[in-house]
Task: structure prediction
Amino acid sequence: MVRGDKNANIKQGKDVGVVIDPGQVGSGASFSGSEPNHFWLNIGGKEFSTQSGISGADHKGDARAIALFDYDRDGYQDFVLVSGNRPYVQLYRNKIGDLMPAETTYQPIYIRLEGGNKTASASDKWGARDGIGAKVLLKSGDLNISRELRCGEGLAAQNSRTMPIGIGANESASFIVQWPRGATTVVAEALPGQLITVYENPADSPNGSGYSVSSISKVSKGIAQETLTTKTHDDAKVSKLFLDMSKPHTKAKYRMFTTWFSTCTSCKAASPLIDAISLHFDDAELQVLGFNNAGGMLGDSKSDMEKYAKVYKPAYIMLSDRTDDDIDAFKIEQDRIITEKYEDLPASQITPTTIVIDDQGRVVFADFYVPTYSKLKQTILEWEGRSDF
Result:
C-alpha cells in the first residue's frame, strides 16, 4: 500500500497492512512481495526446462515486461527486463553459445520485413512499413516453423523487428512471407547467418526480386575482452573503514557486508540469497559479514543478536562487537558509497544493503539489495576482467 503523505499516513497504512514509503520504490522496495522471476529453456521446440536459478534471471524486483533482441549478434536471443522498481532496466545476455563446442554452435537465419506502405495513411494495397502482422512459414528438412511479426509481446514491450529463426544443423531453408493484405513472397533458399530483408512491394527491393541478402556482423568479443583485461580500477571507490572492519575476521579475496537488525523482515526474506552466496563461494574467495545497524535505545543489544543467531542461524559472520559510534561511522560510509549512485535516498535508511570490497578495500559492488549468487559471480568475473562471463 502506498500513501501519498509520507509522514501523516504511514501509521494509518500500518493499521491496515503493508506500507511501502513512496520514496523507497526507487531503492527496490517491492509491491509484489519480492516474487522471483521464472525462466524456462526451450528444449527442441517440444518441452521446457526450468533454469531460473542458474540463469540469473530469478530477480525479485517487480518485473513488468521483457523484450527479446540479439544485441551481440551471436545468434542467441538476449533480453532486456524492465521493472516497476529499482533496478528499472536489466540486460540479460544469452551465453549458451559460449558454453557449446564450436561444431554445435549454429547461426540462425535472420529475417527483416518491410511493408509497402510508405505514407501516414492506411492503404488498401500495402501493409504497414514495419511489416507488422506478416507471417513467415519456414521449412528446413523436417522442420516446419511459423512466426508472426507482432508489435506487442508483453506490457508496453516489443521484440526486435529482426526475426532470428534457428534451423539447427540443417544447411539451408526456404520460406514464404504472407503479408496482411494478402500478397506472398517466396524465398527459395536461405542460409544460416544470412540477413534476408523481404519487401512486400518487390519494386522496393534493390534488384526487383522482392528480397535482398546480406550478413549479420557479430559483435567482436576480442574488443570487449581487450577492454576488460586492461581494467585498472583506478576510479573505484576505496573504503578503509570496511577493510579495517573485515581484517580481524577474514583474509578472503572479497568481503561482502550486508546490513541487518533483528526485527527486519526484509533481512529474513533475503536469507536464502545470502545462504546461496555463502554456500557457493569458497571462504578464501568471498566471506559474508553481517553488520547490525540498529543502534541507540531501540537498537539490538549483544544478547539480542545472540538470540537472533540461535534462532535464524544466518550464513554470515556476525559483527556483534560494535558501538553506537561504529554504527554511525558505518552509515556515513554507506551513504558515501551507495547514495551517490541514486541521490534520492540515503543508503543508511534502507536495510538490507550490500557492499562488496576486495582485499585492498576497493568497492566491487554496492546497492540497495542482496544480489543473487549468479549476479554477484558475474560482477566479480567482470571486475577481474575474465572472459568467462
Q: What stands out?
A: The radius of gyration is 26 Å. Confidence is low (pLDDT under 50) at residues 1-25, 220-230.
